[in-house]
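Anyone? Bumping this.
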Amino acid sequence: MIRIQREDFSIDDIIEEIQCTGAGALVSFTGRVRDTSRDGDAVHFVEWDVYESMALKIFQEIRVEAISQFGLIDAAIVHRYGRQQPGENLVLIVAASAHRKESFRACEFMMDEIKKRVPLWKKEILSNGEERWIEG
Amino acid sequence: MKIKVLFFAALRERARTSEIELDVEGNSVTDALQALEQRFPDLTPWLQAGRVHIAVNDEYVKSDTPLRENDTLALIPPVSGGCL
């Protein structure tokens, strides 16, 4: 499952849709909006821009690579765009496998690849009024 | 030829638009980038410094990639995907 959406997600709802037959392990990673930037400045809110058609395609490529490379039973990626406040959910990755090692590694792999390849951009709007697009 | 060009994030703010139709003399991504620099001089530092990746029809491509009529070219600034 791949979803790109504005609205918040429910981890339980997503996990219910994962194929779990034979899965002894289900590992999920949730990324949330931090209240400080990398430089330690207070973040008021963030806005995400996305090239949706290409992002969906690359998310699916990453999901398929993870399933193949780590022998997963299933995997899901959900990523929000638009505006979020600090503390809100931003991204969810779920991996299901027979044993736990593969799912832990697959979640890390998928998150690393998302950060490198997916056309998503974050703008931080700081509490001091500054705004900046984050690169990398 | 006519192609569609998509702008995102900081480039969208600089170009003040998210999408344009562009007339390109020539038939490669390089030709399209030259046409963009003429139309949007503010984007030149980005385009010439190699800070922007190029995608055509949802695929990352190199600058010598040929273009066809009605292709969609996207300027991809450095991505910030996922979360910190």
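Late reply, but here is one note on the structure posted above: The mean pLDDT of chain A is 95.
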